[in-house]
Write a structure and sequence with these properties.
It holds the Pfam family ABC_tran. This is Heme ABC exporter ATP-binding protein CcmA. InterPro entries: AAA+_ATPase, ABC_transporter-like_ATP-bd, ABC_transptr_haem_export_CcmA, P-loop_NTPase. With 209 residues, the chain is α/β, with parallel strands linked by helices. The chain folds into two domains: 119 residues, P-loop containing nucleotide triphosphate hydrolases (Rossmann fold); 69 residues. It has five helices and eight strands. It has a five-stranded parallel sheet, sandwiched between helices. Strands 2-1-4 form a three-stranded antiparallel sheet, covered by helices on one side. Helix 5 links the parallel strand 6 and strand 7. Helix 2 packs parallel to helix 4 and helix 3 packs across helix 4. The radius of gyration is 17 Å and the shape is globular. The termini are far apart. The N terminus is likely disordered. The protein binds adenosine-5'-triphosphate (ATP).
Amino acid sequence: MNAGPSTSSNINADKRLIVEALSCVRGDRILFRDLNFTLEPEQAGLITGPNGVGKSSLLRLIAGLLKPFSGSITAPETRALCDDNLALDEHLPLEKALHFWASLDGDASIDVETAMASAGLGRLAEVPVRYFSTGQRQRARLARTYLTGAPLWLLDEPANGLDTASVEQLGQVLQNHLERGGLILAASHIPLPIHFDLTLELKPLAAAS
Ligand SMILES: Nc1ncnc2c1ncn2[C@@H]1O[C@H](COP(=O)(O)OP(=O)(O)OP(=O)(O)O)[C@@H](O)[C@H]1O
């Protein structure tokens, strides 16, 4: 992976993520309540907490895929959720799969070649996605995230399956996104090599809640 071109146009710097008094219920269980935080452009936040506490749910709420039980979320209009969903046609070679995806949901000003290079996938352009290893799939998710051109990246365990060198390279891609005015909110059990401005530690609520 490389960090992508530093000459890319800067992301609109007046975008913020503001979460106010946010509560989340899944099934009949409240996962967290009254969560408040703000992320400014060029800032990164880390969500921590044990399995099942609601980290992915928080990311999905901010992505707009779940509805808050209460509270509000103000976020940049375009948000990229990078989770375990690959969302690429597995039968197509990577480059074609990314082109197809970008034609539906990508930012036309970002080219697929740059996205592949940023995720260290250039030499796999002609390989059908279904042959990808776990780590290569993770890189493909990152390339797809990059292609959105979204200021806010919501990353759910982005280092899963990556080897040590690739985690470092992932850090460079994330740092480059921040330096272009982007925002990052990540849930990760694996330490990520970037500076986090904010850590949100989610704790299990008592069963009676
Ligand atoms: N569709 C659903 N309906 C009801 N409950 C759900 C649903 N999806 C997830 N949950 C529950 O919500 C809780 C939080 O799940 P979530 O995936 O947000 O946790 P997490 O902190 O990301 O966990 P992990 O560290 O294992 O990834 C879990 O107890 C899970 O079983």
